[in-house]
Amino acid sequence: MKKLSIKAKVTIVICACLFLVLGAMSTINSHLQSSTIGEMCTETGRNLSWTITQQLEQIMIHGENENLQPLTEEIVSKGLLEEITVVDADLKVKRSSDKSLVDKPAADPMWKALFESLSDTVFNTEVDGVPVKVTYHVLENKPACVQCHDADAEKVLGGLKMAQSMKALSAATTSSYFTNAVLSIMGILILVASILVVQKKLIFDPLKSVKSNWKWPLKAT
């Protein structure tokens, strides 16, 4: 096996160092971008959930329950959410973006735990391979609800479930990763080419010239 020249060794070492440094920088940058995108999408989803919750609660407070069903269907049809379900305290579906579930017992086991804890719940899951954020909100009996509900007899009126697709977050994260990868590879290639040219012009060509000048007097003697 032919022994590597000094030029080849220097080139390999420099390229390896570049790959390590730029690879580490690309990984850190990709992680930071993904984290930032995730936080932005989560905050947007939280604001959307809060807005929809307030809107639905106001409709119920004003006794305009007949507007709930068309609103849930419209929100889902516009792609703002994947699912909206409203159940009463007896775990019966009262309104849902899926009409077939209305007036049927809620099959979701999370409702019972939600009513026992009286604490809103948010978690991430996957549906058909697509990341989804699911929010469960307790509809408690408030002073404004006395028009339709007994203030003393009922503490929990029901619950609200909202499922929001995080597909946009997944797509943005993937796009960010590939963009960083492409930019890193291009940067490495440009730096390697620049270093090869510089070391040839400033190091190896002068050394070659010196070597030739040393050989010429020796041949002359």
Structure keywords:
4 helices, 5-stranded antiparallel beta sheet, 58% helix, 5 strands, Beta-Lactamase, alpha+beta
Secondary structure blueprint with pairings:
Blueprint: H1 6-61, H2 68-77, E1 83-88, E2 93-96, H3 110-117, E3 121-127, E4 130-140, E5 156-165, H4 167-220
Antiparallel strand pairs: 1-2, 1-5, 3-4, 4-5
Helix pairs in contact: 1-4
Mean pLDDT: 77
End-to-end Cα distance, whole Å, is 35 Å
Approximately what portion of the residues adopt beta-strand conformation? 15-25%
Structural class: alpha+beta
Order of helices and strands: HHEEHEEEH
Looking at the structure, the CATH topology of the domain at 31-172 is Beta-Lactamase
- Helix content range of the residues, please? 55-70%
Secondary-structure arrangement, i.e. CATH architecture of the domain at 31-172: 2-Layer Sandwich
Enumerate how many helices there are, as a single number: 4
Task: Write out the strand line-up for the largest beta sheet, numbering strands in chain order.
Answer: 2-1-5-4-3
Our Rg estimate from Cα atoms comes to: 32 Å
Would you state the CATH class of the domain at 31-172?
Alpha Beta
- Oligomer classification: single chain
